[in-house]
Each structure stands twice: as structure tokens, then as C-alpha cells.
Specification:
Distance between the termini: 71 Å
Number of strands: 30
Shape: elongated
Largest sheet: 7 strands, mixed
Helix content: 25-40%
């Protein structure tokens, strides 16, 4: 159906608000987002997919939805190691529980999954059947194309066409060829060393519409067609054609969404298997675009004119959406009226000022046509192609008696595509000759011929001949028998439930928010977090739709400026990737500091200097000569007995666990155990050389300031 909610201008306006970032590029916000930094990391699910880390002061929020920790052909795995003990983790439960599949179960590795997929396809092709894979436009389909292209090349399967059918097929592949730096290390090495772009798919035939697909040779094929829901697009049409063929296979590469034709087909196939029936009935509504009948365009123009109202007045407020649809409809009607005027008037104005040889004759030029001669020129429609196809846009010089004085000549300027394509099917050569593609078995079928064919073939007319300005949507109810085979292989590229649980244990978030997923999967992940993670139950949330959740913790953090004098007098000690020091200072006067980042300028974000803000400064505290120190030593770092055991063994000190404590020394005379928390431990045993050696080792690895 026609889409009237928004138009391409709205899409362009939305994309103008986006800012492209590279992985691991840290960006500081300004304005209302001052103090917030965001950093994207590779998610490993789709090209450009990201896990987001959002930091503000001591808070660290990780948004990890739809990630894949495993490396694949096109992408590296997600950067999970970059996150440790975040303040808040927002993740999804969509893949926590295993999704029901048709004819397959879980696979131990990627090779087993790929083999199962290709075996299903080859079995169908060798049985003289068609294989239809409903896919998305530019996401996981790229991984599937790489797999199938490689398999076709290795197994020499050129006898079976491998087709990618999508209106955006060329755009998708050309874009993928330019994004190799975002892909896996293997892809980058192949291009750097061999100049081999993996998306030069030599085994894949690209088709942009069903008309191009119909011209392929008959026989078994593998068709990757959009869309994966079967709600619209070429996949829906092809499914209606193979549904009744028991030799053909409908293969889903990811779990189907609810309330879609894909889910309905899956359910019907299960019902057929349970009943052991040959087929199950299926009612399917097919829509197609047909030319407007005579009088329909004029009637719609009148309707739009009435809706336009006096002087095209606009109404704002609650009716804004309705008014927008009217504006889009008025634009379509205006385009339709303009095209109709072009068809009626042709190129008369242009030809009246054109000489017989294709150039413009000046008024003082010899042989320039007089006003009388100019008025006698006319446009003719001459049947120059067999089958009644007319060529428009040629002029003829005529004498007062009406006799022709010269051959047909081609106008010098470019012709309107809509006029040309509405008249003949072909293109102009560089010498001004028309090239009839129909004679060479190429090009779309002209409208004059289509009107003599079946109604279903009219729907395959070129898109430039049938659009929203000169056509309407017609629907047909089909009664099908679902006889084809239906199977599914999980190729969605997301971490499974077992991997998600392992990652959560490694990440150890302080709070968790679970989104997406079914109620059962959400409750399952909540229960796991409460039972297996060292966090309180109240810190695991599963909000409903539009339910707000506070993302930050109730912590009190203040920003201060450190003077250069204070920093130079403070000894700093390295601790892993940080430097730690103890400050003795007092709060001084406010000082200005300019922030940097994405700054708002009149509603548009730009990188640059932010508005200066005033922060309290710290200055060295005045010390009293001879006064005793007023602070005690502080142990910095987290003691992990497992890490300590490894380091002691590397230093040549024997150590082993017993009852939650670490026994050290050749005779196990020393005991190390935690006491009271992460930063408190006790060393017990004989006062000997091993005791002092272990104590020195602890002081080196766990800093005291």
C-alpha cells in the first residue's frame, strides 16, 4: 500500500542529526549532556552494530543489546573485555532461551551449522526444487552471501543459480565493499595482501525486481529475497509460487517475528507435521500496483483539490499528521498532472526551436526557420518498431503542401525520461540512434505489450512506468495449499543463552536492566542474575513499555580543579593502568574551565569548545612543622586469592587452596585469607624468612598510600 506517514525529505532531515563514530572513539557531550562521555564498541552482530558505554563521573552504563561474542566470516566478536564491573548493564533476553526451530537443533560450532545449512540447500536443489531464503535488506544477509558464494565456488555448483533479489541489492553490496575496515581481521588481511574484496561475489546473480528474476534460465535456484517476514516484497510473491511444490524449500535463517506471515507459515508447517498431512490450507492476500483506469486520475485530482482548501491553508495541532498526508498526496497529484501534460504536449516547444540537424538555428543564421516554418513543424508518432511500439520525440520538416522534406531527426537536448520510457523500451546511443533492447532479449516489456498479457504479468512492469502518481494498489485473495518443505537454521548472529550467562558472570555488573525478549525469557534471566551475581534482588529490573527506570546511582560526586602546584608536590604511584596518590588539600576559589565535545549550536551538534563552567579548585593544605601525620595507610587494589596463588607460584613460593584460604610455604606454615571485605586480609603463621618474603610480595602488588 502507499506509505503516507513521512516522505524522503523527512528521512534526509533525520539523517542530518546523526554523527558517525568509529569504534573505541570517545566523545564528550556538551550542553544538557555536559559531563557525559559515550564510547561505541564492536557488537559483532551486524556491520556497524555497537555496544555503547556511557560514563558520567563515577557511573558507567553499558548498553549491550544484540551482541555476538563469536568471530564470524565478516565480523570479529564483540569487545566484551572492555567492560568490567559497570554501574549498570542494559541487556536483552531475546536469545536467552533456545528458540524453537524446524528440523534442526543447536550446533556445537559454526562449521556444523554451516554444513547443516548447505546440506539442506543441496538436497533440495538435487531434488529439482527451489530454495527460498527470506532475508533482510543489508544486515545478516551479508554473512549468508559470503558463506554461499564461498561454498558455490569450492563445490563448483554453477549449475544452480545463486540469486540475491532486492531492490537495494547493488547499493547494499557496493556499500559493503567500502566498509572493509569495520569487518574481521581476516577480511582486512585478504584485501591488504591479495587485494581480494570478499564482496566481489562472483557466484551471485543480482536481481533488482521480479522482472529481472523471470529472465533467468528455468530450473532449480537458490533465491535470497527480501523481506524476511514475508509481509511484503519479492519474498512474499515467490513464496506464493513455491508454496504448493513439495520439492521446494522455504528456509528461515533467523527466528520469525510474531504477527507475520513467516510465523504463520511456521505454525502451519508444525501443524502439518503433527497431523502427518500432505498439505494444510493457507489464505494469502497479494497486493500489486496497477495503472489507474481512465477517469480515476481526474477524480483523485478533484478530491485532492477539495482537500487542499482555499489558498492551500495548513492546520496545525492535533491534525498535523492528517495535514502531512494531504500534502504528500497533493504532491503526488501535482506530479501526476505534470506527467500527463508532458504526455499531451510532448516536446512541441523544444522542437519548434530545433533545426533538422539537431541544433538550434539562430535568427540571423543561414537557413534559420521563419516563424511560418516554425509553426508548421509538428511532433509525429511513427511506428518504427514491430509490435506497435511507438517512438516519440522526432520532428519532420514539411512543405506547405504537407509533403515531408527530410528524414526523422533527433532533438539536441536531453529528453524527459518519463516521456521516453512511456513510449518505447530502450535507450539512445551516443550517435542519436535509439537502441531497441527488446530485439536483443533485454530490457523490460513495454506497456503496450503488457496490456495484452495476463493480469499478473502487468504487476511486473518497470517501476518507472508504475508508481504512486499513475497507479493504485489492487489486492487479490489466494487460496494456497502449503506443501513445500519448511526449515530454519539459526543464523541471526547473537550470543546464545549459555554464553550470555557466562559473560554476565565475567562482567559482574552492579545493576542489571533486562529489555526485549518474551516474558518467560525475561523472567529466566532475572532469576539467573539474582541467584548467580553478587547483587541485590532490588537491583535487577525488567521494566514494561514506557516504564521509567533510574539509570544512575545515589552517589555524591563533585568535580574539582587540581592546581599545578598541588600536582607537583603529590607523589604518584603506578597501579596497573592508573596512577594513585594521596592529596592533602583545601578547597579554594572557583575557576573557569572550558569543556570539549559535541556542543549544541542553534539546535545542531558540532565538535568544538563548550561553554566555560566554574569549578572549585584545590590548593595544598598548610602543614604544621613537627606535627604527627593525621592519616593512616590505605590499601589500594582488590585482593584475589586465585591471582595471588598464580603470582606466588611464579615467584617460586608454593601455594595451594584449602577451605577457602591459601596455604603458602614449603611446609605450608603460612595462611592467607580474606577478612571483612575486599581490602582486608590476614597473614598467619611462623615468623620466618618466607613470611617476610610473602609480605614484601603483597606490598609490591597491592599498593599502600
Amino acid at each position: 500500500e502507499d506509505f503516507e506517514v513521512f516522505d524522503l525529505n523527512d528521512v534526509d532531515a533525520a539523517f542530518d542529526k546523526f554523527h558517525a563514530l568509529r569504534y573505541s572513539q570517545r566523545v564528550s557531550l556538551a550542553g544538557k549532556g555536559e559531563g557525559i562521555t559515550i564510547t561505541p564498541y564492536a557488537a559483532g552482530h551486524t556491520l556497524g552494530g555497537a555496544i555503547w558505554k556511557i560514563c558520567k563521573e563515577s557511573e558507567e552504563i553499558v548498553y549491550a543489546v544484540d551482541f555476538n561474542h563469536k568471530k564470524e566470516r565478516m565480523l570479529n566478536g564483540a569487545s566484551i573485555a572492555a567492560f568490567s564491573r559497570p554501574s549498570l548493564l542494559i541487556t536483552d533476553a531475546s536469545n536467552v532461551l533456545p528458540a524453537p526451530t524446524l528440523g534442526s537443533a543447536g550446533f556445537p560450532n559454526r562449521n556444523a551449522r554451516d554444513k547443516h545449512l548447505t546440506d539442506l540447500i543441496l538436497q533440495t536443489l538435487r531434488g529439482d526444487g527451489q530454495v527460498l531464503l527470506p532475508v533482510d535488506t543489508a544486515g545478516r544477509v551479508l554473512e549468508l552471501l559470503l558463506l554461499l558464494d564461498h561454498h558455490w565456488s569450492q563445490r563448483k555448483l554453477q549449475a544452480y543459480p545463486l540469486v540475491f533479489l532486492s531492490e537495494m541489492a547493488n547499493n547494499t553490496l557496493e556499500f559493503a565493499k567500502t566498509q572493509l575496515e569495520w569487518m574481521s581481521d581476516e577480511v582486512e588481511r585478504r584485501f591488504e595482501n591479495l587485494r581480494d574484496n570478499p564482496f566481489d561475489l562472483r557466484q551471485v546473480t543480482v536481481c533488482h525486481n521480479l522482472g529481472e528474476y523471470r529472465r533467468l534460465r528455468p530450473g532449480p535456484k537458490v533465491i535470497l529475497a527480501t523481506f524476511n517476514t514475508l509481509q511484503c516484497g519479492a519474498s512474499r510473491t515467490l513464496f506464493s509460487e513455491i508454496a504448493g511444490d513439495p520439492r521446494s524449500l522455504l528456509l528461515f535463517s533467523e527466528p520469525t517475528a510474531t504477527d507475520t506471515l513467516a510465523r504463520t507459515v511456521e505454525d502451519l508447517h508444525r501443524e502439518r507435521m503433527n497431523r502427518d498431512a500432505a498439505f494444510v490450507p493457507l489464505q494469502l492476500t497479494m497486493t500489486r500496483r496497477v495503472p489507474l483506469a481512465e477517469g480515476e486520475a481526474a477524480a483523485e485530482d478533484q478530491e485532492v483539490g477539495r482537500a487542499d482548501g482555499p489558498a492551500g491553508s495548513e492546520v496545525s495541532g492535533a491534525g498535523g499528521g492528517s495535514q502531512k498526508r494531504k500534502r504528500i498526496k497533493r504532491g503526488k497529484a501535482s506530479s501526476r498532472r505534470s506527467r500527463r501534460r508532458d504526455r499531451e504536449t510532448g516536446l512541441a516547444t523544444h522542437l519548434l526551436s530545433t533545426n533538422p540537424f539537431g541544433g538550434r538555428a539562430a535568427a540571423d543564421e543561414p537557413g534559420a526557420a521563419s516563424g511560418q516554418e516554425m509553426s508548421e513543424r509538428r511532433i509525429v508518432l511513427d511506428s518504427v518498431r514491430p509490435g506497435g511500439v511507438l517512438v516519440e520525440g522526432f520532428s519532420v520538416r514539411t512543405s506547405p503542401s504537407g509533403a515531408s522534406e527530410g528524414p526523422l531527426v533527433f532533438p539536441c537536448s536531453e529528453l524527459d525520461d518519463a516521456v521516453i520510457k512511456g513510449s518505447f523500451v530502450g535507450e539512445w546511443s551516443e550517435y542519436g540512434e535509439s537502441v531497441d533492447l527488446l530485439r536483443f532479449g533485454q530490457g523490460p516489456t513495454p506497456t503496450s505489450v503488457l496490456t495484452e498479457k495476463k493480469d499478473e504479468e502487468v504487476a511486473q512492469a518497470p517501476a518507472e512506468l508504475l508508481d504512486s502518481s499513475n497507479s493504485r494498489i489492487a489486492s487479490t485473495e489466494l487460496a494456497l495449499e502449503l506443501r513445500c518443505q519448511v526449515a530454519s537454521v539459526d543464523y541471526q548472529g547473537r550470543s546464545d543463552g549459555r554464553s550470555v550467562k557466562t559473560i554476565l558472570k565475567q562482567m559482574l555488573p552492579q545493576r542489571v536492566i533486562v529489555v526485549h525478549g518474551t516474558d518467560e525469557a525475561t523472567e529466566h534471566l532475572q532469576t539467573f542474575c539474582k541467584a548467580s551475581l553478587p547483587i541485590e534482588s532490588v537491583n535487577v529490573h525488567a521494566p514494561g513499555q514506557l516504564e521509567p527506570v533510574r539509570a544512575t546511582s545515589a552517589v555524591s560526586v563533585r568535580q574539582v580543579l587540581l592546581s599545578q602546584e598541588l600536582l607537583s608536590d603529590t607523589p604518584m604511584h603506578p597501579l596497573k593502568e592508573f596512577e594513585v596518590g594521596w592529596l592533602d588539600a583545601t578547597i579554594g576559589e572557583l575557576q573557569a574551565e572550558a569543556g570539549e565535545g559535541l556542543v549544541q549550536h542553534d539546535g545542531e551538534a558540532d565538535e568544538g569548545k563548550g561553554v566555560a563552567k566554574r569549578l572549585p579548585s584545590l590548593k595544598p593544605a598548610e602543614s604544621v612543622p613537627g606535627a604527627p601525620p593525621t592519616r593512616r595507610g590505605v590499601l589500594v587494589g582488590e585482593l584475589k586469592l586465585a591471582d595471588l596463588k598464580i603470582q606466588l607460584e611464579r615467584a617460586g613460593i608454593a601455594a595451594q587452596f584449602s577451605g577457602g584460604q591459601l596455604l603458602c610455604g614449603a611446609r605450608q606454615t603460612l595462611t592467607i585469607r580474606k577478612q571483612g571485605g575486599e581490602h582486608s586480609f590476614m597473614v598467619e603463621g611462623a615468623l620466618n624468612s618466607e613470611y617476610f618474603r610473602i609480605r614484601e610480595f603483597l606490598y609490591r602488588n597491592f599498593l599502600t598510600v
